[in-house]
Specification:
This protein is an alpha+beta fold and 307 residues long. The chain has helices at 80-92, 114-129, 136-146, 150-153, 199-207, 215-225, 241-247, 249-262, 282-295, and strands at residues 5-20, 32-49, 57-62, 98-104, 167-171, 175-178, 187-192, 267-268, 275-279, 300-305.
Length: 307
């Protein structure tokens, strides 16, 4: 007999390296090669299976300890977790009535993949809650239809309660090569500005001077940096960082101030606006966070572990 309740955590991600290629036909999407890893900044999804014929209930709220909450000003049916639920109902051809309470900590529009992680968690949770028995390929196809980052979080070779393993993510997000774990204790400090960087605008800025996709550079970096990423932090890169700074000049100003004041490499994740620096252990992260708070008024600062 299956349980009728389930709680699952949805982690944020960092792009430790991101190479982007020019848009390709037919739809103008940009191929990528990126080193993804999860961090322990978590959204919580609590689900309860409802009796057949009941109407599903979806509720979203910010956690009390969320580092940068913002208005939940989108219709609940547009939330990626809810869309994942509806996509599963469409796949099985019938209602899967449940009650969802999604408690968010991952900032919206910061390049941390929170919505995609929520969608992946929802797919795996509903699959278990209703004993659907869907395989990884099916979940992956449904996930890819929801967003390019969703397949990364759908690591079906791990328990549903575990975070996705680090990966080299290629193509349009659908080609995944899981790579070795990062050293235990590795940390990052996140600086979360009170503004976002619209992804579409960042890619349009990239298109004005597109880079060449360089997957081999990302592979070499994974090989060199996996054992001790903080030592290779200066080699991390993001092809969208400069376009994001052109779209949002405040991001450029923040990066310059942090790089000068912290004395360590500071990077953008995804299309922004979150920036991060690495630390070898929690004590180092705490020291960097204290300094970052003084240099970034108006921004939230969070210490996280790479998981």
């Amino acid at each position: 007999m299956h349980a009728d309740r389930l709680t699952i955590h949805a982690p944020a991600k960092l792009n430790l390296a991101l190479s982007v290629g020019p848009p390709g036909p037919p739809q103008g999407y940009h191929p990528i090669a990126s080193w993804f890893c999860c961090i322990d900044l978590l959204d919580d999804l609590s689900l309860r299976r409802l009796p057949a014929g009941a109407a599903s209930v979806h509720a979203l709220a910010w956690a009390d300890d969320a580092p940068r909450p913002s208005p939940i000003d989108w219709p609940v049916e547009r939330d990626l977790a809810v869309r994942a639920h509806r996509a599963l109902e469409a796949h099985v051809g019938g209602a899967l009535p449940l009650e969802l309470r999604l408690v968010k900590r991952i900032p919206v529009g910061g390049g941390l993949g929170g919505g995609s992680s929520d969608a992946a968690a929802m797919l795996r949770a509903v699959d278990r809650l209703f004993d659907l028995g869907l395989n990884g390929g099916t979940l992956g196809r449904i996930g890819a239809s929801l967003g390019s980052d969703v397949p990364f979080f759908l690591d079906v070779e791990t328990p549903v309660e575990a975070p996705a393993r680090p990966a080299l993510v290629e193509g349009l997000g659908e080609r995944l090569t899981r790579v070795g774990p990062l050293p235990r204790g590795s940390c990052a400090v996140l600086v979360l500005p009170p503004f976002g960087c619209p992804t579409g605008q960042v890619y349009r800025a990239f298109d004005s001077a597109p880079a060449r996709l360089d997957a081999e550079r990302v592979r070499r970096l994974i090989g060199a940096a996996s054992a001790r990423p903080v030592d290779c932090s200066g080699e991390l890169f993001n092809d969208l960082a400069e376009p994001a700074c052109r779209v949002e000049p405040r991001l450029a100003e923040l990066l310059g101030r942090l790089r000068a004041g912290l004395g360590v490499p500071v990077h953008v994740t995804g299309s922004g606006s979150t920036v991060f620096c690495l630390a070898k252990d929690p004590a180092g992260a705490a020291a960097l966070a204290r300094r970052a708070e003084a240099m970034a008024p108006g921004c939230a600062v969070a210490e996280v572990a790479l998981i």
